[in-house]
Specification:
By secondary structure, the chain is an alpha/beta fold. The protein has 21 helices and 8 strands.
């Protein structure tokens, strides 16, 4: 009997970030996470994803929590497991390109507060927009001996996105000094046999470990993982079953069981996983009962393959239409999205390009004339401020929306002057820790509202007196 060569597959657990972002609008509070960290820490995960743009925003905005404090507490509870965050390249965790000094400082502070792996992506897959964040991570790594720069390619479909394109990107990522590659399939568009082809081609052309991230939205995700693992992928992103499937990831327990006894065996203890699932299940039931978890997002939405629109973008669009009493325009907007995407150079649809394309499509339909009105973000995209798209943008649209304006051709950060000092000065009165300036940089209004709330809490103000609507608290 020949001995089986073991190649255990790694699993990144997403229940503390993407799973609740995808299913319950990122509303899982820190206090719910903390009691189970000890058990999660014993599983043997490759990493636990616990931080990113939406978790940061929702912590400040809705949960009235300091996201940095959350990170420190999670770090404290995970003694043996790597933590992971999602980082929007030059856009950090926000919606616009930031200056290099802010990108740098954010990376430093993320690692200092407990992040091990930084997954960095750009909404246009413009590699130049990733360089500063990768370099910053490598600088921290050289100084502190910790930090890992993972570059994520936003997976999408379209004429430009050939196998050669992805392989070429993988080579460039290796050259730019990243530690690993992630294929980030935010809409569940990667089908099983295509995954096999893609992983094989990338493995042949890069030595970097490859991680695959997908969503169950279109119903193919666990089959995609199976084929990707057989093709040599190193790590897959999964969510514990109470917050798996639907618009979230394949279930951790299911993937663990699938590879049991094979060369890919994770070696995870199903009893331990069951205890973790038992912990989260009542919270799922509660979310279902309160309506926070909508059963609609738990099924298979095959339209995602037809329209290639990520789940989060669809729900945004529905609420925009609702506000305008124009829900009957849903399918018109769905048809308009790929047209706007083409006009804007066929970018992947991921934050913030997904919001830019989606909002402009809604405008185009509701105004009854395409680009009669353009959002500031659409204008900036056409001006090249977000970077270079894989295909050229529509010249007619450029001429209509920003006639005669200069088009920029450098990386997005090249147009933003260092701004850390200015930001520090603006928020000085609220500063209680170094990290506060970064919260302010990303979400100025939301952060100040939070700072006011924090101060009021500290001064033990009677919160029934607080004017929460206007974010004003008596102090
Ligand atoms: Mn995702």
């Amino acid at each position: 009997m020949s001995e089986m060569v073991k190649k255990p597959i790694g699993i990144t657990e997403t229940i503390l970030r993407d799973a609740h972002q995808s299913l319950i609008a990122t509303r899982m509070p820190t206090e719910l996470m903390l009691p189970i960290l000890d058990k999660m820490d014993k599983v043997g995960y490759h990493s636990i994803e616990c931080w990113g743009g939406a978790t940061f925003d929702a912590s400040l905005r809705f949960l009235k929590e300091d996201p940095w404090e959350r990170l420190r507490k999670i770090r404290d509870g995970l003694k043996n497991t790597k933590t992971q965050m999602l980082f929007r390249g030059q856009n950090i965790l926000g919606y616009r390109p930031y200056a290099d000094d802010v990108v740098d400082y954010f990376v430093q502070k993320s690692v200092a507060n407990g992040i091990d792996i930084i997954r960095i992506f750009d909404c246009l897959n413009d590699i130049r927009n990733l360089q500063e964040a990768v370099d910053a991570t490598n600088r921290v790594k050289a100084q502190e001996g910790k930090g890992h720069a993972q570059v994520a390619l936003s997976y999408t479909l379209g004429d430009a996105y050939t196998m050669e394109y992805w392989v070429d990107m993988a080579k460039k990522i290796e050259e730019m000094g990243a530690d690993s590659i992630c294929i980030k399939d935010m809409a569940g568009l990667l089908v099983p046999y295509k995954a096999s082809e893609l992983i094989k081609a990338m493995k042949e052309n890069t030595k970097l470990p490859i991680q695959l991230h997908t969503h169950y939205t279109s119903g193919v995700a666990s089959m995609t993982y199976l084929k990707a693992v057989e093709a040599g992928v190193d790590v897959i992103d999964c969510a514990m079953s109470p917050f798996a499937l639907g618009t979230s990831q394949p279930a951790t327990e299911v993937m663990v069981e699938t590879f049991k006894g094979t060369e890919y065996d994770t070696g995870f203890d199903q009893n331990l996983l069951a205890e973790i699932a038992d912990y989260f299940r009542p919270y799922r039931d509660e979310a279902l009962a309160s309506g926070l978890l909508n059963p609609k997002v738990m099924g298979v939405d095959i339209k995602t393959l037809l329209y290639q629109v990520p789940g989060g973008m669809l729900s945004n669009m529905v609420s925009q239409l609702k506000e305008q009493n124009a829900e009957d325009k849903y399918y018109d907007v769905l048809r308009e999205i790929p047209e706007v995407r083409k006009d804007l150079g066929e970018p992947p649809l991921v934050t913030p390009s997904s919001q830019i394309v989606g909002t402009q499509a809604v405008f185009n339909v509701l105004m009854g004339e395409r680009y009669k009105m353009a959002t500031d973000q659409t204008k900036d995209m056409l001006r090249g401020k977000y970077g270079k798209t894989v295909k050229p943008m529509n010249q007619e649209v450029i001429d209509k929306v920003i006639p005669g304006e200069e088009i920029r051709t450098e990386r997005s950060g090249a147009y933003v002057e260092n701004e850390l000092d200015k930001l520090e000065a603006e928020m000085a009165e609220w500063k209680q820790q170094d990290e506060d300036v970064l919260s302010y940089a990303l979400f100025p209004q939301v952060a100040v509202d939070f700072f006011k709330y924090r101060q009021a809490q500290q001064e033990k103000v009677d919160m029934t007196q607080a004017d929460s609507k206007n974010g004003a608290y008596p102090v």
